[in-house]
Amino acid sequence: MQKVIVTGGTGYIGSHTIVDLMQNGYEVICLDNLSRSKEYALTGIENITGKKPVFYHVNLCDKNETFRVINEHKDAIGVIHFAALKSVPESVEKPLLYYANNIDSLLNILMSVKTFNIPNFVFSSSCSVYGNADELPVTENTPVKDAESPYAHTKQIGEDIIRNYEKTNDTQSILLRYFNPIGAHPSAEIGEIPIDTPNNLVPYITQTAIGKLEQVVVFGDDYSTRDGSCIRDYIHVCDIAHAHTLALQYLAEKRNANNCEVFNLGTGNGVSVLEVIHAFEKVTGIKLNYKIGPRRAGDVVAVFADNKKAASELKWECKYFLEDAMESAWKWELKMKELGL
Ligand code: UD1
């Protein structure tokens, strides 16, 4: 069995990726500091796959700790690095926390990858690196503009660090730029577990529908879009997860043309906030309590992906639609209530 190290493995995308890796025959070593996730994810993973991944509670901002754990698993064929803080508004409030956490952990992981000669590295990047792009859909070659938030800036810096590292090192890397991951595993065994009040749209919708929150505020309906609300590319988290398995296989089979390759992971479809709300109402039959409010600072008007590169090179395709994502997100919200999460 080939071994893969997954940092941030109890988090939202990390846990779904671990399931996908295990179902494709990999042994997974999961690292997390549990600051924004719960150990329950490991139980959910076990309920789906029949096996718990090996877990280390580790602070990746501590170089010694990081090296100690990676040293124990230096036979791994790759590291998938998810661990990072990801709230846009929180990053505006606490920029130093975001720079310190997201950059220090990346540097420690990369130094250990280099020291222990782990051949492959996959980095969680984000469509937020594009900023307010001039043209849509964005391709991997669309120029990166100014970051709209410290969070987005940490992803730009992270990409630059990996690109520069790759110029003189043998590790093979992939930067995956996620658009808006939503939904949960169809089994409702794992999903996103927001620690505080969520900032992201879909958990905000499901928490409102279940009565934890009072009302969804649509941040602006006066944008120059088809219904005035912002447009994003919402992609099912299981589709994102599977792309990591394919990315690792692509690197392991040496199909990459360059040491460092970039891929957009989006559906290619732009969907408005109001359309998301209506899709939720349609699949659940619930009338959502929402109102139109002012614009949110730092929001880009519209962004969606050109995903042709991932389709042709990784042989990746989306298997789920918006309605599937809304249905699974709702099932997961109900499950969390049952579990008291
Ligand atoms: C942003 C980043 C994304 C990153 C993610 C991490 C961009 C373009 N995208 O996503 O790369 O991975 O943060 O969290 O910067 N909305 C409401 N009401 C709400 C919540 C959201 O109307 O209560 C709207 C927002 O204005 C936005 C859309 O819903 O138009 C999606 O927002 P959200 O889920 O927070 O994600 P992004 O900000 O797009």
Can you give a write-up of this model?
The structure is a single chain. The protein has a domain at 3-182 and 235-266: Rossmann fold (3-Layer(aba) Sandwich), CATH 3.40.50. It has a seven-stranded parallel sheet, sandwiched between helices. The chain has a two-stranded parallel sheet with strand order 7-10. By secondary structure, it is of the alpha/beta class. The longest helix has 21 residues, at 95-115. The chain contains eleven helices and 13 strands. The model has no long low-confidence stretch (mean pLDDT 97). The structure holds uridine-diphosphate-N-acetylglucosamine (UD1). Uridine-diphosphate-N-acetylglucosamine binds at residues 86-88, 126-128, 152, 178, 180, 199-201, 204, 216-219, 230, 232, 273, 296, 299-300, 303.
